[in-house]
Amino acid sequence: MQKDFHYYATYCAARLAGYSHQEGMEICTAAQFVDLCSITFLESVKGPKSAATTQLQLELMEARTDIIGLQDITRIWASFHFLPYDLHADVKRAGKQYRNKYRMICKPNGELVKSTVELAKGKGTPAVGIAMHVVADTWAHSNFAGTPSLVINNTEKYNFVELLEDGTERTIRFRHSTTTPDDLDNSIYTNSIFQWSENSIMNLGHGRAGHLPDYSFIRYRYLPAWGDYEAIVKDNPSEYYSAFCQLVCAMKYLRGNRDSFALNTYDTVSVEPWADEIKRILRKRQLDSCEDWRRLGEKIAGHEIDDFDLDKYREEYVSADKDNKDSTFLGQFFIAAMAQKSMVTNAVFKSGNLLAGFSVDFAEKGFRGIKDYRKLVNQAKGGNDK
Predict the structure, then answer these.
(1) Which of 24, 186, 288, 377 has a Cα-to-Cα distance from 120 of 20 to 30 A?
(2) pTM of the predicted model as reported, rounded to 2 decimal places
């Protein structure tokens, strides 16, 4: 998903869930920041590097692809953008290496979705925003994995077909020009360059499908490598609507309006008064629907929605003294990000899968290794990490 959904649509969902305007702004800012909190940013504010929730293109191009490097990549992308659906999925007639990668495939309504939402409970608006980003991406990034893999993430480029609203079909063509906007009128899109190497960065996530998973309007048919190149239909307008309703449901739980969060539940009742307008935005063929979502959000809330602006939070964090940094917006975001990454990595490790590396359950074992994570132990002990 893109800024239009992670920022503006998430704000709309937060308001429908009962959050105030200010709370909604903090939640959607955190949700959007997940796509921007890189090592480069963290170094610029002297934040904990382990709180990285994304990798910039240049960072990925320079990333190591040995075992350690691949584990670093997987910890970020599987934790925040391609949450694994079933870490114990049965794969017949497959070796351990393939089975472990297959089990990293992202889909909505997996057990880690429930764990992600519950983890954010009582942790403040930055944690809510992170959780909403992760949940939303399980819908957009369904059928791809957050680890580099040709045998999982590759697609058959000659069999991409766009399913248009008038019932006709149009062949999708791909190119590799990152500076040229996608051509919606002719179904020409940019994707990653094919690489035979199993662990090439070009085979991370949905790179082989370009930005198709991130556009709410598109319906398309394609052949994924993990499915033996058998056809799958992706109906983004329908799935994005389900994602929006699930965000409302999740945030009602996080706000305290629901006693529990259950998978496969969607708050269509709260969304119904705005359903036609939301579905119209989701179906509209455009590269960026920020302005449409902004107008809807302002109509729902009766407030102007500020542009995404991290500068005030950056200044707050940089200016805070050492003892108060963790209580700032970015400080809370960093701790919540490390908690999410730790939870997912630990779940992957406990399943017998080392693609995200070794992990320690901090709640049970206490502090081990990377000093950044001492913040989690300190938080769990109410400020005492001794």
Answers:
(1) 288
(2) 0.93
